[in-house]
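In the laboratory, one determines a bound structure by crystallizing the protein with its ligand and collecting diffraction data. In a computational setting the workflow is compressed into a single prediction: the sequence and the ligand go in, and a structural description comes out. We illustrate the idea with flavin-adenine dinucleotide.
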Amino acid sequence: MNTATTPTWRNWARTESAAPTRVTSPADSAAVVREVLAARERRGRVKMVGSGHSFTGIAVAEDTHLRPDGLTGVFSVDREAMTVTVAAGTPLHELNARLAGLGLSLHNMGDIDAQTVAGATSTGTHGTGGVVASLAAQIEGFEMVTGTGEVLRASSTENPDVFAAGRVGLGALGVLTSITFRVEPLFALEAHERPMSWDEALSSYDEMVATHHHVDMYWFPHTDRMMTKTNDRLADLGDAEPLPRWRGWLDDELLSNTVFGALTAAANQAPRVIPRLNRFSAVALSERRYSDVAHRVFTTPRTVRFKEMEYAVPREVGLDVLREVRREVDASEWRVSFPVEIRTAPADDITLSTASARDSLYLAFHVHAGADHRAYFSGVEQVLRAAGGRPHWGKMHTLAASDLASVYPRWDEFAALRDRLDPDRVLTNDHLERVLR
Ligand SMILES: Cc1cc2nc3c(=O)[nH]c(=O)nc-3n(C[C@H](O)[C@H](O)[C@H](O)COP(=O)(O)OP(=O)(O)OC[C@H]3O[C@@H](n4cnc5c(N)ncnc54)[C@H](O)[C@@H]3O)c2cc1C
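The predicted complex, in structure-token form:
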């Protein structure tokens, strides 16, 4: 175990920081147990942190900070059950590479692969479409150290109540040490990106979602333009036609990240030009098709730093909520340089998943890291809340426990389990006290 003293920690978006009293990298569950028991004994707190990609203070370790880097790697592969068990601190990009080497893949994932598996699942990180959209809904089982220092294993047949809640546990129920994911034979996806008008995109959205495996859509505020991306499985992995390296670099790194980063940073200084810039960006993005191994199509590098709020609203009212959001943006003085991202998820069975027991439409709002997000986010948040929206657990929002309890029918179940697994609140922090009480 490596032990260091009081470095200062910052999250990816630079919205949160911490100066923990102790930083250590446990290498197994016994080491995690020792940390939890020691903190409990002195009435302190422990937090396992992932890669710091949450925009909120959910990952702020106020006392003992457990780093994920001692808990990485693939523990076992069960080809009959089609499951893979990995250490909880494994970064997603490492998991994807290892799985690809084994001829295996996850079913679905979000836009990036920098997060740890435990950090990503604990906040309900999701992609779009598919049979399941979130990483947590692909979990078959896990091992965790509870706030009383007990090592628990959970699956649908072993401690099923812990399994129901612990897949999106917010780090509040225990420190995950390993996760078993359901996997599939490696597959390739064909991506088709194309610009559309607002009306065309909204009128064809339900049909797109019904006919494609994954649909992702971006609306450019202050314009009538949408960018749609559909991903469909290829019958044969060998049919994949990746973009040439230079084209991938030009499109994704240079145009999408570098030029976009410079434009949005400049727009911060001169918000009046944003509507014109958005029209330019929307027109500059052209239609393209490419195919590749699934994880390389799902994820892209994100080098432009931003702040984000995302809500899940019921799927059946989702497009009306998006229309209402547009009316708010059009009627406001806000100048929004980042596109609004629109994704879907089928209902799942996880206690506090944003898609718990309801099909969902996700609406995600971004501003440049240096911009003031408050007027835009709080204006849009009112629309999302009025629709019964549930905020992403790792992204910015202003709700407190009492607000959240009203949109989660199984809230009390989670609260009772937390009282049982972490009665002395060894695993809490200020953010969790706000959102869970
Ligand atoms: C550029 C960018 C792109 C993103 N794209 C998406 C996307 O496409 N879809 C989406 O849904 N989200 C997305 N997110 C949000 C991100 O996936 C989540 O915030 C995720 O939680 C970050 O994972 P992490 O490893 O950085 O965890 P952290 O942010 O470090 O931690 C998150 C929570 O997990 C807990 N945790 C970490 N490890 C453990 C453990 N071993 N046991 C128990 N709890 C633990 C922490 O204590 C904390 O409560 C994005 C974020 C960024 C910055």
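Residues 12-13, 47-54, 58-59, 68, 88, 110-112, 115-116, 118-120, 122-123, 125-126, 170-171, 175-176, 302, 392, 394 surround flavin-adenine dinucleotide (CB under 6 Å). Keep in mind that any predicted model is a hypothesis to be tested, not a measurement.
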